[in-house]
Amino acid sequence: MSRIIAGVAGGNPLTSVPGTATRPTTDRVKEALFSRLESLAVLDDARVLDLYAGSGSLGVESASRGARSVELVEFDARACDVCQRNADMVNQVLGRRAVSVHRSKVESFLERAGEEAMWDLVFLDPPYPLGEQALGAVLGKLAPHLDEGAVVVVERSSRSAEPEWPEALECFADKKYGETRLWFAEPA
After folding, report:
1. What angle separates helix 57-64 from helix 77-94, to the nearest 10 degrees?
2. Does the model's pTM come out above 0.70?
3. Rounded CA gap, 22 and 56, in Å?
4. DSSP string covering 77-138, please?
5. Helix, strand or coil, per DSSP, at residue 37
């Protein structure tokens, strides 16, 4: 069972998406990821976007650790319901509505985002079958919505090729954890 690791909601269990269509980020990977993000000082008061959110575990972990606002974007109805349950739990612990859920395709969500929509931290954990060109297109739509100093984290299979970064994004690190690889990028 997955849980929130740290912060004000630390230790609370997370609802998981039933079935095998969604791959939850393991607690080991999540601990390493958030340790890195804390060392980069991007979590405190951050505006966070969690694309292909699944259960929303990365987004709600961010809220627990001090993010100002978190938007979870998920298209699958069952996963979106789980996101909402996890968001409601964290919002209740925080005593405010920090986490919101959007049932939408990622591409549509980014196309509808106004010019004022800006984020400091973005997670992308797309389904493995999503091709590198499609992921590159999403990263291209995301880039204009990144604030200065923003960090983008892409989670893929360790067997996947490096994402096709648009000119507006520059990869500054990657790390492999068993079957998972994380890529870190920032505005170029």
Report:
1. 10
2. yes
3. 11
4. HHHHHHHHHHHHHHHHHHTS--EEEEES-HHHHHHH--TT--EEEEEE---TTS-HHHHHHH
5. helix
Are the C-beta atoms of residues 69 and 98 closer than 8 Å to each other? Answer: yes
165's tokens: 């970064």
Cα 7 versus chain centre, distance = 17
Average pLDDT for residues 56-78, to the nearest whole number? Answer: 97
Q: d(Cα 114, Cα 106) in Å, to the nearest integer?
A: 14
Taking only the tens place, the pLDDT of each residue in 113-136 is 988 999 999 999 998 788 899 999
Cα 98 to Cα 65: distance, rounded to the nearest angstrom: 12
- For residue 171, what pLDDT is reported? 97
Residues 151, 54: Cα–Cα separation, whole Å = 20
Q: Side chain identity at 108, as an amino acid letter?
A: S
